[in-house]
Amino acid sequence: MLVSAELFIKNDTLNIQIPVSFKETDPVRGELIHPLIISPLLTGNLSENKSIFVNDQSKSYELNLQYWGATDTTITIQSNISNDDWMSSFKDTTIQFKANSTPFTLRFSIQPKGETSKNSTTTFSFKTANGKSNVLQGNTSINYNHIPRITWFPKLQIDLQKVDIKIGSKNILYIKGAGDEVASSLRKIGFVVEEVNAIALHGMELKKYDAIITGIRAYNTDDELANLYQPLFKYMEDGGTFIVQYNTNSNLHPSTFKTPYPFSIGRNRVTDELAKVTFTQPNDPIFNSPNKLTEKDFDGWVQERGLYFASKIDSNYTNLILMNDKEDSPQEGSLIRCQYGKGKFIYTGLSFFRQLPAGVPGAYRLFANMIGQKK
């Protein structure tokens, strides 16, 4: 919020804008100054705002509402789906809010009507006691010590997609890394995912998992992974699939990053999310089972293709993709795999940690194929 002011200095006029702020005292950080935020009367937050459906089963949602008014009032919450291919259990709901009330939660479900349901959007609105209709907005903040607090109120909606994704293997062990939403994204389309820190693998029965996946930068952030190469190698020898998502090459020594055959992690990346993608081995199972993939599965990617690609790659690996930014030469190393015993090892620098939360269908189909390399 800004306040405009005019300063008159002799015969001159100076127009300035001053941000409105308030002060608070933190017992550790001392005096803090924050921008004054004027909130909508009612805001909401959804349990999920991008949904991918792989069948006709319904998904459950929660809408958490916060009333910011200073007086008691009655408000009616409404919802609308942009086309008739979807069904929602949401009903118009009238709520009596008290001043400074605690959050109120509404629960509902949505499901597609059939195999050919078109993409849709669910939006929300509310009517106040005087009959005025308002768009329901979210309440999102970025709050770190080194920058001013930033708050905005985006339109609240759920993007709905019906996607043809076939799932082969389902049981996944996910080793946490620096933090990503890949595991939760995989659960949304039907995978059973158990998340652990690396230390939990000691003594675990790994053979019951169809695939083991490391989160982004796991080898950079969890020193215990360096001590687990023997059980992980045994897991692959016995038929398991081990997938390593990107790590950086900072402080990553071969003694701590042990792979079936050697390669280095380079600094190559492709920043253009529209960059052309070429399959070097189009008949490879990763592109054919359980989903038949084409280069069109790289349509709709967001922000980038990938980063920290493999380099100096041993000949035992198969490089599966070539891609490059404009004026760069084709880059390999974004997706490599090798056979190890009865199982497989896969390293990928593709930015699944961005694509899956963004609901990119082709990224889901490719990841399902990587997992779907059955024992």
In short:
By secondary structure, the chain is mainly β.
Task: Output the number of helix runs.
Answer: 5
- CATH-scheme architecture of the largest domain: 3-Layer(aba) Sandwich
How many domains? The number is 3
Mean pLDDT across every amino acid position: 94
Sheet having the most strands: 7 strands, mixed
Number of strands: 27
CATH superfamily of the largest domain: Class I glutamine amidotransferase (GATase) domain
Kindly provide the radius of gyration, computed on alpha-carbon positions and rounded to a whole number of angstroms: 25 Å
Strand residues, percent:
35-45%
Strand order of the largest sheet: 18-17-19-20-27-26-24
Helix content, binned percent? under 10%
What is the 3D shape? globular
Provide the CATH topology of the largest domain: Rossmann fold
Label this structure with key terms.
375 residues, mainly beta, Immunoglobulin-like, Rossmann fold, seven-stranded mixed beta sheet, six-stranded mixed beta sheet, 5 helices, 27 strands, 9% helix
Give a description of the structure.
It contains 5 helices and 27 strands. It has 375 residues and is mainly β. The chain folds into 3 domains: 34 residues, no CATH class; 121 residues, Immunoglobulins (Immunoglobulin-like); 201 residues, 3-Layer(aba) Sandwich (Rossmann fold). The protein has a 7-stranded mixed beta sheet with strand order 18-17-19-20-27-26-24, with helices on both faces. The chain is globular and about 75 Å long. The protein starts with a strand and ends with a helix. The model has no long low-confidence stretch (mean pLDDT 94).
